[in-house]
Every structure is written in C-alpha cells, then in structure tokens.
Amino acid sequence: xxxxxxxxxxxxxxxxxxxxxxxxxxxxxxxxLQFIVDSIITNGxxxxxxxxxxxxxxxxxxxxxxxTYGFHxxxxxxxxxxxxxxxxxxxxxxxxxxxxxxxxxEDEKIDLDAxxxxxxxxxxGMKDKKELTLREILSHQAGLTPYIVFLNEVMRKNGSxxxxxxxxxxxxxxxxxxxxxxxxxxxxxxxxxxxxxxxVDELKExxxxxxxxxxxxxxIKQITxxxxxxxxxxxxxxxxxxxxxxxxxxxxxxxxxxxxxxxxDAYRNALVHGWVHDENASLLGGISGNAGLFGxxxxxxxxxxxxQNYGIxxxxxxxxxxxxxxxxxxxxxxxxxxxxLGFDKPLLDNAERSLEDAYPAPSASPESFxxxxxxxxxxxxxxxxxxxxxFLSNRVYPSRKNRNLYELNIRTSLHEVFYSYYR
Length: 423
What we know:
Layout: H1 3-13, H2 30-46, E1 52-59, E2 62-70, E3 86-87, H3 92-95, H4 97-106, H5 134-138, H6 151-154, E4 165-166, E5 175-178, E6 181-183, H7 187-197, H8 211-224, H9 228-237, E7 263-264, E8 270-271, H10 279-282, E9 294-295, H11 297-308, E10 312-313, E11 316-317, H12 321-327, E12 369-373, E13 377-382, E14 387-393, H13 404-407, H14 410-422
Antiparallel strand pairs: 1-2, 1-14, 3-9, 4-6, 5-6, 7-8, 10-11, 12-13, 13-14
Helix pairs in contact: 2-14
C-alpha cells in the first residue's frame, strides 16, 4: 500500500470518508477531532515525512486549534514547541514583497497593467520583457523562466568556490550567506543581469516563476527610498505586532528555538540552522523577496487573519478592502490559470475533485488563498468559511529528496478535516 492510500485508509478507519464528502465531523467532539489530526501527523512522522510539525487553525478570528508534534530532528532530542521559528521559504513571497506592492498599488505608485519596465528600467531594452505587466508577472502568466540556479555561478563543478565567495567579510564582501561565508557585493548586479537576459516564453500560459521576487526588494527600495525590510517592518510587522517575523533570526536575540532545515552539501557543507535554506536568497545575504522570512505559527496566523479580514486586524486598517480583494482574485481563468496576484488559489475545479487530487482541501472556497513553502510550510485563509489554516514542518530535513509530505497528502487531508469539523 502506498503512502497516499495509507493516509486515506486512516481517515476511513475513523469513520470519516472525506474524499466523498458524505460525512461531516460537525457533531464530533473536540477530542475526536484531535485524535484524527494526531493520527495523520503521527503517520507522517512514522513515515519520515518530517521529524516534527505543528498545526494552527483559527475560526472566525479566534485560534481554535494549535498543537505541536515530534522533534526538530530525528534524534528526538528537542521537541517542537508552539513558539518555534521556522524558515518559511516561498511563503515569504506573500508576507514580504507582496503586501508592500499592494501598498504601492493603492497609493498609485505602481500600475498593475503598465509595463513593469516602467519601474524596473533595466528591462526597457529587452524585447521580450519590456511590455510585460506586473499583473502578468504576479499571476505567473508572463512566461518568465521558472528558476535560475545562481549557485552555479559561485561554485565550480569540482566543488571549489569562485571569486564571488569569501570566508571573511571585506569591503567588497558584505552579504553573509552563512558562518564564515560572504558573497561579493557585485553578485547582485550579476544576478539582475542574468534575470534580465533570461528566456521568456512566447506562449503566455501559467508557469510559476520566482525570478521577479528576487528583484522586488530593490524595486521597493527605489520607489520608497527605504530598504525593503525597513518598509516591511514599518508598514506591517510592527502594526500587526509580530516582531519575531523577519530575516536573519540568528542575528536577533529571540528566546525562541529555530527549527533546522537541510544538510547542505552544495556549498555551505553544514546543517542549515537559522540561515535561509533557499540558495538564491542565501546569495543575497538572506534578505530576499522569494524566500528568507522566518516566523512562528502565531506570526503567520496574525498575517493571514489580516488578509482574511481584507486588510484590517484589531480595528487597524493597513490595506484597503478593494486592494486585498483585487490581489486575491483569480486573474486569468480563461487561460486555466488559478493564481491571484502573488497568492496561490484553489484549482479551478477543486470542489469537484477527490481528496487525493485536490489543492488545497476540496472544501476550500474559490475565494480562499494562501501559499506553500519548499521547506514544508503552508498557509491558507478562507474569507467565506472564516478559516485560517497554518501548517509548519521541516520536511527537507535532512534532505530535500524527501517528498513523503506530498506522497502522504498530509496538508490537504488535515485541511479537509478542519473544514469537515467546522462547516
């Protein structure tokens, strides 16, 4: 029996045939709900999907479930705690550059339908990029190259370093990628040049690309006159009262434990712990738009609750309702593209799919939105059902080759369980 079927069997054994939507947990007790969630997570740990995880769920603005499971690593020495800090990976995209772009949009400093090259002028001379709009880029409809392995530029095939890396800080090596590992200041220019010269597909269809998120921090700095993280802190982190959300947690004096990610044998040759896992973000000194944010489950709950409320939290409005609704709406359904502006969305026919084929939970409303992260993180908000779902794990420990989180279909199964209970 494969992993996915074993997960479905667990649910069936507890009398909940979620994939057929024929039964609801609504009349079940909280203990029964917890028993099912515990079983799904425990099955994941037993099958090495991750050494530990935690789940936080909020219903109608109040946290109704928050529980931790397992340990930081498979040695079972340090148990997962509710205030642990995780590498959020691509969840950074919707918590870092995206809210600042939303703010610039509503302040009329950027136009979603103007050529992006209007603001990012280095693209003006590129025939295949000069007419691309921010709307196309944010909804992954622009045809941009999905990913560039910039690590190939700093490491030779034999494993030795190039001139872009140094083992100590210097005037021209100020960006720290790891302990005793610094990146040349000039590498940002090289990165932007490679992005500028990267291929664009002539056929405009949905293709996920994180390249533009690497340049958004610099764009935000150019428009606002302040650094990306300064603007993020001023506009959102401080007002939302989530100071533990941020970059470079090893440089801060938080008492929270940081959950390790992967053993990197590519260029850091160590367990990545408190430093960003994503290599491209690492080469930018850990502060990027595609990855690099670290935070707790509570941090994510606050931010996603703010989004679910369409721009307001604790009576404080930080974004206009119409702005959030614009960015969380499907942009190109006619092209079979489910994406919003930066936000991920349910598959267009999600409600008609079985549990094993849906993304996210089949019961998630078409108005819901969120994002996943490569390290094993997932956040989702549903304004119609008033349900915020947070799942955190370090599924890449000790190696990214571990795909059991996906094979077991853990996140979708858990998500659907909570819909079934709270519907």
